[in-house]
TrEMBL record:
Lineage of source species: Eukaryota, Fungi, Dikarya, Ascomycota, Pezizomycotina
Domain of life of the organism encoding this protein: Eukaryota
Transmembrane segments: 77-100, 106-126, 138-160, 172-197, 209-231, 251-273, 305-329, 335-353, 374-398, 410-427, 434-454
Matches recorded under Gene3D superfamilies: NCX, central ion-binding region
BP terms from Gene Ontology: intracellular calcium ion homeostasis
Pfam families: Na_Ca_ex
Residue intervals of the Sodium/calcium exchanger membrane region domain: 105-274, 311-451
Main location: membrane
Topological type in the membrane: Multi-pass membrane protein
Organism: Penicillium canescens
Keywords attached to this entry: Ion transport, Membrane, Transmembrane, Transmembrane helix, Transport
Family per record: Belongs to the Ca(2+):cation antiporter (CaCA) (TC 2.A.19) family.
Compositional bias ranges of the Polar residues kind: 1-13, 31-41
Name assigned to this protein: Sodium/calcium exchanger membrane region domain-containing protein
Amino acid sequence: MGSIRSDNSQNTDLRLRGSGDGSKTLKEKTSQSNSILPTNSNTSKRRYGLFRVKSAGESGRTGIHPWHLLKVCFRSVCTLSMVVNILWPFVPAAIVIHFARPDLHVWIFSLNYIAMVPSANLLGFAGGELAKKLPKMLGILVETTLSSVVELVLFMVLLYKHGRTEHADLIPVIQAAILGSIMANLLLCLGMCFFVGGLRREEQVFHEAVSEVGTGLLLVAGFGLLIPSAFYSALRGSVNEEFTLHALGGYALTISRATSVILLVAFLTYLVFNLHSHNSIFDEVLAKDEDKDEDRHEELARAKLTLIECFVAIAVSLTCVCMSAVFLVQEIEFIVARGVSDNFLGLILVPLVEKAAEHLTAVDEAWDNQINFALFHCLSPSIQTALLNAPLTVIVGWGMDKEMSLNFEIFMVVLVVLSILVVGNFLRDGKSNYLEGALCVLVYFIVAVCTWYYPGVEIASTNQY
């Protein structure tokens, strides 16, 4: 393996570069401006090439070496991730049983559900290896987007199958999965990060720029997701012969489509903010977080993938996880027919596997005291789900002439908004401990119990017309 170059280019005291005030730290700059976020000037932006292969991402090799690729991928980055790789035999087993015994619906669903975990784990690992070869914010965005591909595939397959048979009413499952994905990241994943990180230290301190931007975007997203449901629920009791329930549903659908376009604009603004206008702030924050990594010496010495091997691993894992997702979705209506409510399936079961890679990565980072990285891996997927995946699903449904809307069950959307408020309150002081983490996880368990007993749409629904 080639020699590993030390990374001396990162400024660990968070100094803002600019003419005339190069000696002022980020903290001083923030206090002077009396604002939550530090000022980001054009002169302070750091210029990178597309690939920044430094000590964190240098493999010392070129091309592709199959045996080395398998060995590095199996060892992964942490013990938990390596243990998950033991589940890989379920992947071929799930594929075989899907084609050999298509009548075994429960077995097909169960095996593919398990098979998604190691596939998503490999996707997360390969995405993380690629992210280390990119500028920090771009790397995290690429890593998060790769995990979101799994979610989008699930949504699109569910949308395609909706209405194709008499009992294939799958839009409620999509809606529940959208909200469930947000809650799984905010309550379960973030809670586990706070809890695991708090076990090794009294408290962890994260930067306000990360928490404030994340919670602000989530509040806006929660507002956007709530409006169509609130509109429909507020006027449902006022229907009459002139203002029918069907007309009200049509208005809610139109509002959902307009809101989706606006949320996509918000996501593009978020990208410009993170990757262009204020990227130096977040790069500096994450650079300091890298220096706090308690296993950094092991990370620098660990065998890594080459650039080509990253793309190969991503392609293989995406293929496997998408196949499992498609096979899984095809069995949902049979699972619902056996008594599992579509709300529980979408809100709890599906999000647990579709974001497994992000969850494992974030928990490992929190354990190593990289709490800002962990926050990015908890908040960014939620932001992408709310501002990109959900609106995109609505717009694609619009093009397919299917009534996919943001008119959620009022019970579920209230849960999401409350989750955002709970997490925002914990992030407000810029510190975390194991108590806050445990409380977030316990809240998620309460949500899971309530959802298990919440009736399906055929019995109780606040958004059907």
